[in-house]
Specification:
Elements: E1 2-3, E2 6-9, E3 12-15, E4 21-29, H1 32-37, H2 41-55, E5 58-66, H3 77-88
Parallel strand pairs: 4-5
Antiparallel strand pairs: 1-2, 2-3, 3-4
């Protein structure tokens, strides 16, 4: 899928003109209790950072939805921010 000159491939974005790979991470937990306790958010962030380092990606941002359960992605503020970030390039 192409968004504003970028190809979104899995969890990263590849810029066409210079072939520089930029990444935007998205992490979430679905309960307020998990969000307060930090369950899995730190682990998710660490894994994204490790993956980007391993692949040589430039990690632009990590966007979180802490304690947002169920529903559709369109109702999650962090997911909306992720889409906006991708579209803005």
């Amino acid at each position: 899928m192409v968004h504003g000159g970028y190809y979104r491939l899995g969890d990263y974005i590849r810029e066409r003109e210079t072939d520089i790979t930029k990444a935007v991470g998205y992490i979430r937990v679905s309960t307020e209790e998990h969000a307060r306790e930090g369950v899995s958010l730190d682990n998710q962030k660490a894994r994204i950072e490790q993956h980007c380092t391993y692949r040589g990606f430039s990690l632009v941002d990590i966007i979180a939805d802490a304690g947002v359960s169920g529903g559709k992605n369109k109702t999650r503020p962090g997911f909306i921010e992720l889409l906006d970030t991708i579209e803005a390039g």
